[in-house]
């Protein structure tokens, strides 16, 4: 593998509002280190996702030292500055204990992009009182990321109760006809509560990027209104 | 088609507690009429299911006259005597308007077998207050048949709230990834609420038979206890 | 079918920001007319979707007269007041001529909810210059609905170029391995451009509702900021 | 992982008639130990399912000592009191040797909930005399759990012979087109014997819960009749 | 369509023991008539399969007159001489009324090839006594064609009871997870009774050809033994 | 696991012409040893299939010594007497080197049942001259087992060239859209050469049993003819 | 539908070597007529594909008169000049009569683009002598389009015998596990003969375009060599 | 395993223009060594594909020494002479870092067959400017192999921009609905850019063979023209 085989997109941040990140799942250790080297040379903060603890261990000590690594989310930050403060814009809600991995991936991606978040875990519909207790709190967030596997009834129920953007992350929990998350995914896509959108299975990173896009959309409108006002 | 190609199972009632019925969907009009003739000769009441209005129209006038036909459920009764009375043992609950067909198939099958029922329609979870208003009423029924399509969140939510038998009937409502009911079916099978059992897609008839089996099971225990008591 | 079998959710508007709508695809004409009657009694404007021209023809003349019906989108408005004005917040972009149906469903749903839109049709990537000519115009919209079938490369390319919310609507165009839209759907879900969210196949209505949610989220933030300011 | 990420539903027992249990398959050892700690604090007996021998080994010695662990069923009991006595209400029937795992999961779940059972193993239909010898015995049980993989013909044949509730558990035995149990599942769903209901693949736990629900339904009727009598 | 676009394989009979036949399902009326013309010119008896009554009606009167057409099996014979006599070698057994079509296709194909058959209809396992009554009769046939849809338990049960060749024809009866015969097919492929072989869904013609091959195999052995004897 | 959980079918040989065998893939070592013990007690020769070398190693030394084990076919014989002699009745033909495993499973099963065989390996259609050289030899066998993966064109080509019974064994060779043998299986099921029957993927054992059934069928006819002659 | 909703790509010819064509399957009659109008205004010859005879009939008489329409291929030419002459570069080979539709679509597309072709029909491998007779003729063509459904063994066999480019067009012929062409497609993709490439099911048009690309590639090399020579 | 079980096709080179290669994935080490022995005896250069580093390590030292092995592509050359020189005819283009494996397999196969290539890596459409920078360079190649996973938008975009042969290699990168490459494969098959052909998932070897066939086709035309000229 030579340096020329990898070409990062460092302008993504200015174009889209969030920088490039590298999905490490199918990359070799030399490929990941080359990516870190290019990011470091360009002096841009960089996010690694799907970096298994085993693979993380195989990175050189020098990189491991510089990387802010979080095993449950399998994410690593290079050159991260500081977390967001203020009222959280995004709630990350999970149905069960087994959904924690993708939820943490979303939380860490939002943290890396300096978005404040509220984690609300283990409120699945099998004991619906757990959810009902916290509905008002959830509904105050402009963006809700709902993480659920198996039958993924949580996003449907939430979609009927909260007014903001609802982004469903189906997860690969369960067995048999859970089909590694396909049933959860399809249940989200055909949800009887309208206006829910969906990401790939276990894609906490993608849901966080979608949340950033939604917040960016708001910022665009606010800026447009400011321009319009100034023009009056 | 000759008479010998059809052989009905008239002892099923004494063996199982409900008589044989004929699924008309893939049968020809002459086959259906032959079945009615055999049932009539044997003087057993007989239930037809999946008899489309168009096919019903093509039966001879003589049979049409004798058949108690109900178009929305696509069922016909031959030689039916009288409905059940008393406190209903089975609630048939639907999520949306489009689930009415299989729900009526279940209701009619139970009626034919003299089981009293409570229909509770259009209480899907997208507006969960509709369901919450009626949960206590539903929970008083020993057997609940939950009919729902699309993401089929209704049986999951019900399964966490009612103590009796919950039989889910996934329906073929919806489009795209609803996949003619497969998503609803799979969501029911992997429900996060335990102890829900499931029938084939749109199989209101099968759910009714399962309800009859559950009631039969109770009767067996009661009889056994009576025998035990008598033996004391 | 009796009146009790249908129960509409008229408070949805105040709860979610958009009113209930009825998917007519698997409903009978009597069911649709009963729904219109209830909406009319409640004096709420009402949206019908997936109302085929043939089924529309079978509604009573009285209802047909009062309904603002649009055949290509298969939508009908009851009691609609007036369209939105001002700078459009949502661009609806299609890849090819055959994607027009779901795109019009999204446009009409947004119109019904008084959101101004920009339609941009037939800019699929097979002739990428068609898209490149209009990228800057598209990128100025806070929310972009990208409607595409077959390989659905359009949302991926757009996702790398525009900063706002990108909602992909896969469509059932094509044949063979297009699999009635499943390939387009899956391609959107695994898009190499991050932060794209996806709706069910051909679900222009759902994409419009998601756009309304994203705009609602913006309004929530603005209101929160106003409250915070007032509190200073 | 913090304590707040897990929230158990200890009222489930009073609501549904069986307590919460934890599916350990996709949980980490720290998550399982936290669950045991919460259950222990609340002083409720607790059931663990899908706890592989390897994962069981990795629990702390203190928990291992207190846990009544059964490797073939992969279940563990915490704080279990005593087994049921009396005439068994549930027969658990298997088709072949490879179906023993899910059958033992059902038997242990019933034991934990103090239901008496009859295990009847290895009576698949390829040598139908093995089944015929025991049909009368099986038919005396109000509830029959039929565990079978491959073509799952056993529940169909049983469904035509026994009058009580028949709950089919398809298993993931076999290879090739057995498709990890999907063929068995689908065969059960479309069984030609009516009134069979089905659980997810290998879901012995769910079948046991469904059996408990059926017995609970019976109890509800008996209580209702007692109340009615008292009111006379 | 020109004559050159169709090229029949008239030597198949001498090579394989049964002549070429034409599957009419996806052929146009002109294509079918051209095939009949070529067969007629070559003076070979010819078999048409999957010729729907509607398409049969659209053949020219001259061909219709010469064709021995049987609607339920959708087969037509051109130039057929006489039926077989003697002890039947092949039993064609069906599970239910809806399986009659493919069973008749097999029966007619065997008749066309002068093989004597025994039809045994409607002996599915849901009422297993119907099958048990006739097992000895079935087991006396060297070749058994078992035609069954839905869960296709019949071939499995037969496979455990009869010693000769068992050829399963899964059928597309049923609905929902019957999946147009795929569940029946897969159930046959993973049957717990060994040595069953399987044809495509609804392929009565193919099963008949396989039966002819099995009988041909027998003839080869007999001839070989005769040669061996003569050589002594 | 107790002795009562396993019940073998030792009469299968007299009923079907081949004895019971045990599929070891999903059985534990104690289960396999219990099966051997029962077979040994009953003094019947016994066949084990899908016994991986690793699992074979874990059997007790006593059983390993008594077992005639063949690693490539993963089969073991207990109490096997002697091989067949005479002209082979069954040809086992493979397309490629990777198909050898299931082919050897078929060969060993036939050997165990004292049927003489001809192995013909590596004659797939990509270099059709390899097949053409040996077609006449293959065609002299009454029964041909054709073992092929990937596109499984071999059974189709053979089916057009040989007159006897053709039993196709699709194999799980290949990658990507080979889908672990499903493509090979489906290609065999829809083969354009009629009268081919098919077994489950990699099921060399089942194909051998089907061959034994076909030979048994022949024997039944010969015996019937002898009886008829004697009766003259 | 307004004119702005359709935007054709008239520069495609100069860019790619073949002009834009319109797939009419999911287009309305007004959309098709608008496309013809734009093509006519631009004075470019234009190709319509998948234009069913019924839809063709519904075009205005004026367009019908100007269109060179061919029903079996469902193609129409607008403004076509003259056919190619000279030695054919492309052979279009079919397995069976039912594959004629996509084969004619390929032939017409090549004709429209002035490529000379050789049609070779009905040479499937079930009677392999039909193919062997013509192999040498086929092998002389630089590009071979192999059109086959069901098990699609033809492209595999051809791929082992001809040296030029082999483009497989799987077709939707057959029933049951032919799965509308998916089995044929997968069999082509995993063909044991290397270097075969594949198009979508029934995509004769795409195969023709691929053949044009292959011929264009040749032309590019020849031109490059001429330039190189001139530069010497 | 005996020598007779493997039969190589050494005439393939003269017949097709490229020699036989062995797919090592499902072959044992003894089988691979036997293949090398036969190739060595025949003195033909030989290509091994899908030879994992682990399996390579297990070959005998003698073979390892003689083999030119390349781990990332998992290919080995036996008896390879020298690389091609001159202007590259084939560009191998990848979308992302994870697609490098199949791309190197294609590059190595072309190198083995003495075709000059241009590798162009990491130009996927999520940052389309990376692709646009190099389009002119790519378009100068007669044959383009486009290697892409996930949504595989790269081949579609390329197909609209380059005139020569475009061979798409879908890869198994991604997770969830990427379905091990099936989504990429289907997206390529239904690409909106016409004339793209497709190979099996990850099949870099097959794409290289297809490129060789396309170049062979060119050579055939050139030779034909030379013959024609000479004949003048």
From TrEMBL, chains A, B, C, D, E, F, G, H:
<feature type="domain" description="PurE">
    <location>
        <begin position="88"/>
        <end position="220"/>
    </location>
</feature>
<dbReference type="InterPro" id="IPR000031">
    <property type="entry name" value="PurE_dom"/>
</dbReference>
<dbReference type="InterPro" id="IPR039476">
    <property type="entry name" value="P2CMN_synthase_LarB"/>
</dbReference>
<dbReference type="GO" id="GO:0016787">
    <property type="term" value="F:hydrolase activity"/>
</dbReference>
<protein>
    <submittedName>
        <fullName>Nickel pincer cofactor biosynthesis protein LarB</fullName>
    </submittedName>
</protein>
<dbReference type="GO" id="GO:0006189">
    <property type="term" value="P:'de novo' IMP biosynthetic process"/>
</dbReference>
<dbReference type="Pfam" id="PF00731">
    <property type="entry name" value="AIRC"/>
</dbReference>
